[in-house]
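Dear Dr. V.,

Thank you for agreeing to look over these. As mentioned in my earlier message, I'm a first-year student in the group and I'm still getting used to reading structure tokens, so any feedback on how I've presented them would be very welcome. I ran two proteins. I've put each sequence directly above its structure. The first is here:
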Amino acid sequence: MPPIYKICPVSEWRVAEAAGAYRGSAVDLKDGFIHFSTAEQARETAAKHFAGLHDLVLVSVDADALGPALKWEPSRGGALFPHLYGDLPLTAVRSIAPLPLGPDGRHAFPHAFA
């Protein structure tokens, strides 16, 4: 299975690194699961939920490592989105990349991003 992605503030990710697991954003905690996006969904997620925000990271996660706690559920426009019911173990993280704002005001995804 291809990787899935989490966009979050650097400060939030630093808390996860110190704790040994990512427990989710305030929205994730409210909804009861951690929201992820596929590569095809990540740019729209950034534009819709993180517009204009600086100091973000793009966390690439091995979806296969999450087991049955990862569910694919309909969300925006009926598309299936990955939702993790539980903490994200740092052992499932493939990479972390900065997600800066480009000159056009949109987030500049890494060149290697699928």
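The second protein is here, in the same arrangement:
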Amino acid sequence: MLSLTVTERLTLKGRAHQLKPTVMIGNAGLTESVLKEIALTLKLHELIKIRVMAERPEREAILNEICTKLEAAAVQHIGKILVIYQPNPDAHKIEIRQMPRHRGKKPLTKKQLGNR
């Protein structure tokens, strides 16, 4: 399972805000075909949202299972939406930089980062 620093997670949350869920996990749960689809989508986009129609403990188990099997990082889990990141050196669409500073004083807030 990939781990992220706080600044990396904040950057990815800001980028994921505008995304729409690309994969849905329904009543059947996390099957092999759904896992393959998630892996394919992660290779193309690097950062994806997944909508899970299950109860909270099941969602947490699904998130952990996806991250361990695909060597991905869990960025965010809000309600029924999971945000997952897996870097792809071939595509390299998302560049994670250090948090920019505002007027040389203090780091930007989440809201200010989201506006960029």
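From my reading of the second output: The longest helix spans residues 56-70. The mean pLDDT is 87. Does that match how you would interpret it?

Kind regards,
E.
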